[in-house]
Amino acid sequence: QVQLVQSGAEVKKPGSSVKVSCKASGDTFTNYAFSWVRQAPGQGLEWMGKIIPIFGTTNYAQRFLGRVTITAEESTSTAYMELSSLRFEDTAVYYCASETTVLRYFETWGQGTLVTVSS
Amino acid sequence: EIVLTQSPDFQSVTPKEKVTITCRASQSIGSSLHWYQQKPDQSPKLLIKYASQSFSGVPSRFSGSGSGTDFTLTINSLEAEDAATYYCHQSSSLPTFGQGTKLEIK
Fold it and tell me: Is A97 within 8 Å of A110 (Cβ atoms)?
């Protein structure tokens, strides 16, 4: 089973971009797909998109199309999520979560990264 | 997009009580429905996969059932440590989550 460790908290200004990393260990990186899920303060879980590194394919939720880019670096077993044109309402904890390429449930979650958008 | 609607949104329960949380999908998703538990300031944890399969290490008091559009998470003999918010998630198409059900222990 893979373990996931995310990068630290960020404070960003409106209109800027943020890039959060998620480093996998404990198993073969290309056995997994990596999704990004966010949770605004006091709110529920919202899926943003995912990458399947072995195929190099990505899928994004409609509402984030054009603003989010998910990438993966096999050499370092790291997935990334970049969100641009940040708004105050993008303040949230951002989680990465792994699923196998066949079994599509989120077996492992990172610890979360708080992104605060503030002027 | 497949919409998942959970009920109730909130429930206050006593220890040893039996709890049932439902999740209804806006269209049929077969058994591609999974349940997670999230405690305050923690990441979600997988409880049930594919509607009724318990995930490794999850206490046997947690069980799931259902298929198609209607699903249920049951907690038998609730314990104080089960205070949390519970989410359903569908993987039939692009993932979506239910809005969550918060369980408070009296």
Answer: yes
